[in-house]
Amino acid sequence: MALIDLKGIYTAYEGGDKAVIKNLSLHVDQGEYVVIGGPNSAGKTTLLESMNGLVKITHGSASVCGLDVSRSADEVRKRVGYVIQNFYFDPFTPFTVEQVVMMGRFGRLGLLKQPSKQDYEAADRAIRRVGIEDLVHKTIGTLSGGQQQKTMIAHNLAKEPEVMMLDEPFSNLDFHAREYLQGVFKDLVRDGIPTLIVAHAFDGLPDIPIHLVVMNSGTITYDMNCTAGEVEDIIRKECKVNGRCSSR
Amino acid sequence: MLEPLIPNNVVCHALEAMIFVSIACSILGVIISRMALSSIGFTMSHAAFAGAAIGMFVGGNAQAAAIAFSMGVAALIGPISDKAKMAADATLGVLFAMSMAVAVFLISYMEYMGRGLSASALLFGDVISLYREEIYALAAVCGLSIIFVLAFYKEISAIMFNMKIAEAAGIRVKLVYYILLFIIALSVALSLNIVGGLLIFVLLVTPASIASQFCFNVKSMFVVAPVVALLVSIFGVWAGFEFTLPVAPLVALLLTAVFALSVMLSFKRRINTKIH
Ligand SMILES: Nc1ncnc2c1ncn2[C@@H]1O[C@H](COP(=O)(O)OP(=O)(O)OP(=O)(O)O)[C@@H](O)[C@H]1O
Ligand SMILES: [Mg+2]
């Protein structure tokens, strides 16, 4: 079943001088492990945000989890996990890791509903899955960058999403944590949940078929299955052919 | 409501008013301080001021006009910030300037026409001569603030944590944020008569700041801030009448003193160099 189906979408930012995503089509099925690569400013983050309705799609059709993204963005976001690329929590942020993970459930719970035992259990599972049990009572702003990253991943796992998107989730993580989380994502994929990962480094990719998407200047220039070992070479080649690897 | 306990009507009304105002403002103040919205105090007090001037100008009820105009301004804060792509704080600045301009314009004009306008009640507040209806309105606003925070606690806490992450989680951020701004603005507008535009700021910001000295957690801040505000207000009303001092400024000064004390006593700045 196609969980993501984009047909010729365009995306532009308010006040921007041109479209950032141009005539882009993408099809992702259940249980796919998708790696999205490409140079800085290619539009990877914008693509993820178009798919969950955080950025408006101006033309084309986009369906995620069987829903029209333009029409039911709120509903899509309840079902899609999205770990954002950049976040900063000041040291005085008055929320504990436990509370932040629990917030992952709040959207799908809906207005005026209180968390139930089920919600607490889901949050607890996510915390254990990511291995941050010892941090639950710490306030998030006092954690290291990698610990915060893990907390945000747990926040999205707690949501029990139908699609998982992660924007450079490994940027702050040590090699042990990277390997460990790759295992977590591999499990998600095995459970049928398509997992889309934007990345710039490709060591430790799992040993499963990889749906590789390479973006250049707002469009997809490569969209095929490959193995973990081939990813880096294909991206290098793609960027060279399209001549934009170190543009700006 | 407290008549059976306090025989003196004036003291009783003043106490009731201060209780409701301090609870509402301090609870909302926790949200306001976290989200850097404290200029909402200035903006709403001047919106009420402008509304009163309009009311006087058209020869209607100044108080009703003050509330109506403030509610109008309150409803505009969210949508303007969105449309203009500005931080709510900048919108509050623009609306503050607009309100001030309307008020000054009308007051100058009326003076020119030989009709005066007394603004002192709105600027300084007045806990002595309160009508029963005003107390009821304050009780309603206090109740509304508490109910709102309890009912939308999930959403409010997520928004206070991080707007973008709350939105990505599928929370209806815009809806809750607009209601939030509106309720804050409404509470401020209704509290103005009691404590005045100059002191409302203290009630919005100081109890939350005191709470933040001791609380690591937003839940406890929502409890500590109103409790502190309530205790200080009750003491302030008592001391004000006992020693014939102006009540609202006294409460403001007492809160500031408690804040100073809490900064000195806060264990948050303790540095722990334990090795094991
Ligand atoms: N809020 C915004 N307003 C206007 N333009 C934007 C905005 N966000 C991104 N852009 C533009 O869109 C283009 C794509 O940005 P995007 O963040 O999607 O790139 P990316 O592929 O994720 O890059 P990186 O690898 O650096 O994260 C860039 O040219 C950027 O300047
Ligand atoms: Mg990016």
Give a concise summary.
Chain A has 248 residues and is α/β, with parallel strands linked by helices. Chain A is 33% helix and 25% strand. Chain B has one domain: ABC transporter involved in vitamin B12 uptake, BtuC (Orthogonal Bundle), CATH 1.10.3470.10.
Provide key terms for this protein.
heterodimer, A: alpha/beta, Rossmann fold, six-stranded mixed beta sheet, 10 strands, B: mainly alpha, ABC transporter involved in vitamin B12 uptake, BtuC, binds magnesium ion
Kindly describe this structure.
The complex is a heterodimer of chains A (248) and B (276). Chain A has a domain at 2-87 and 161-241: 3-Layer(aba) Sandwich (Rossmann fold), CATH 3.40.50. Chain A has eight helices and ten strands. Chain A has helices at 44-51, 73-79, 97-103, 106-109, 117-130, 145-158, 175-190, 231-242; strands at residues 2-11, 21-29, 33-37, 57-64, 67-68, 80-83, 163-167, 195-198, 210-216, 219-226. In chain A, β9 (210-216) and β10 form a beta hairpin. In chain A, α3 (97-103) packs parallel to α6 and α5 runs antiparallel to α6. Chain B has a single domain (9-275), classed as Orthogonal Bundle (ABC transporter involved in vitamin B12 uptake, BtuC). Chain B starts with 8 loop residues before the first helix and ends in an 11-residue tail after the last helix. Classes of the chains: A alpha/beta (248), B mainly alpha (276). Chain A binds chain B through residues 14-15, 52, 54, 74-79, 82, 84, 87, 89, 92-96, 99-100, 103-104, 106-109, 111-112, 114-115, 139, 152, 155, 159, and chain B through 34, 85, 151-152, 154-155, 157-158, 160-162, 164-172, 176, 212, 215-218, 221. Bound molecules: adenosine-5'-triphosphate (ATP) and magnesium ion (MG). Residues 13, 16, 20, 40-46, 85 of chain A line the site of adenosine-5'-triphosphate.
